[in-house]
Amino acid sequence: MRVLKRTKSIGMLVATVAATGLIPLTAGTAQAAPTGYAGSCPTAGTVTQWWHSGHDGVDIANNRGTPIHSTGPGTVIVSGTASGYGQWIRIKHDDGTVTEYGHMYERLVSVNQRVSSGQLIARMGSEGDSSGNHLHFEAHSSTSSTRGMDPVPYLRERGVGLPCTPGSGTPGTNFTTWGTSVRVRADARLSATVVRTLSGPTPVFVECQKRGDVVNAEGYSNDAWSYIPALGGYISNIYIDHPAAWLPGVREC
């Protein structure tokens, strides 16, 4: 039995509930999942070349072996050698965008591997068409994109400014879930597709929250849902281990 007392906000309560499952009482306005993801700094260093008409990305220079990190959660779709790059990595993120990393001397991930935001994926080098140790970083709108978009606004929209320090843009754990068999859904609706089920308490990073279907559990009711980018979906705030029904310090989606 849950012992943590949860604040019951006006307009979010229902009369005494004895339900032990998830019961939809009213439906909130359906909204699409937020675009983008909570970003992480790709590497530390000095930006020696920005994006322009003849350069599809940004170049960040530092010492050989400087760690290179994935800017967000996703799946590795390329990890190997390539003309010009020497070695390169491409990651398809959960929002459909693709990030590209080049010139490293060591790759630490393989094709089809799942990576998290901020995960170490390579070490900086100067292979291929390169005049010194640096990371060439690109951002693409999709796998079919033939030209990289400007990575600066792309990263800024995800909370990362250049130059940056790894860890500064990496979302940490700010809450923990409670309960078992907690369902992560594609939207804040009980009819939405289940994208993941948590077997037990799980540390999570909540990016934003919004109103949705009312959920009842342990005698409490709540219509607020948290978006967990690493899980690709929403969890009812009733299963976020915090006494407030609407989480403090978390923006609205």
From TrEMBL:
Residues 54-142 form the M23ase beta-sheet core domain. It comes from the Bacteria. Keywords: Signal. Pfam families: Peptidase_M23 (PF01551). InterPro entries: Cell_wall_metabolism_enzyme, Dup_hybrid_motif, M23ase_b-sheet_dom. Residues 1-32 form the signal peptide. This is M23ase beta-sheet core domain-containing protein.
